[in-house]
Amino acid sequence: MHAQYSYAALAAALFFAAPAGARNTVAYFGINPGFEWYDTSELFIDRDASTPETELMPASGFQPELRLGFNVSGYAGLEGFIGGHWWGSTNQWGGGGVAGGLLRVTPLEALQYLWHPMANRFVDLGFSFGAGYTLVGEDFAYQGWFLQYGFDVNFFLFPFLAIGFELPIRQMIYQPFRITHFGDRRGLCTRGGAAYDNQGREVVRTADRSVIDENTGQNTGVLYVDGQGRVTGNYVLTEFSDTQVGQCEGPGPEAWQYTPMLKITFLVDFGV
Prior knowledge:
This protein is mainly beta. It folds into 2 domains: 2-40 and 56-169 and 257-269, Beta Barrel (Porin); 178-247, no CATH class. Helices cover 6% and strands 53% of the residues. The protein is built from 1 helix and 18 strands. Strands 1, 2, 3, 4, 5, 6, 7, 17 and 18 form a 9-stranded antiparallel β-sheet that branches. Strands 8, 9, 10, 11, 13, 14 and 16 form a 7-stranded antiparallel β-sheet that branches. A two-stranded parallel sheet has the order 12-15. It is elongated, with a radius of gyration of 26 Å. The model is unreliable at 7-22 and 224-236 (pLDDT under 50).
């Protein structure tokens, strides 16, 4: 009986004892070079009717991000971030960006109460959830917001420096409005990947026929079809202004963005 009480007391002491090497609260600044790609069939960013279908969506490529945040005693913290990517040349270029915030939980810190050596570990694991604003486009553009889910691994090389890996997965949810003219903020309502003018006519790309923009007189590389997908002829393109977005019923286009990144983090320990 005494042995059982002894084992119970030892287990309680291991569980509730404060570890000698508990982490302090830290602030940090990070640089994340990464590679992004989109998974979507609803974002059409190129107005050129001769562009291959495979090049109508946002391009994949290098995406750096900057991070600024803090972690409380190794358990959890808040972070703000901003990043972007670009493609093309001076004559035909496009890009996109994200800006948001997240909550990051680092659960390995709690394991020190079960096994004290964990308090002095050189590696940490994080799980994050966040949200923010996003914009992407080339000839056409979309803006909206996103939800982010992710995990990361950090290796502490020095008290002030950590190197690691992060994989954020972002669910992009755009406004039901395709911006077609950046200067005066005109565009088309969208329902998923389809676009409609302010007369309710669907606008589609074509390499053979097109309509003339009512403001510029230029060929737009699109034409109208009826509800059964039949060509109804060339029309003057009548668009919405961005103040009329509320008239767009949606749903807006959606996409998933995957961005595996290298993490370079500089730490400032507050000593508390």
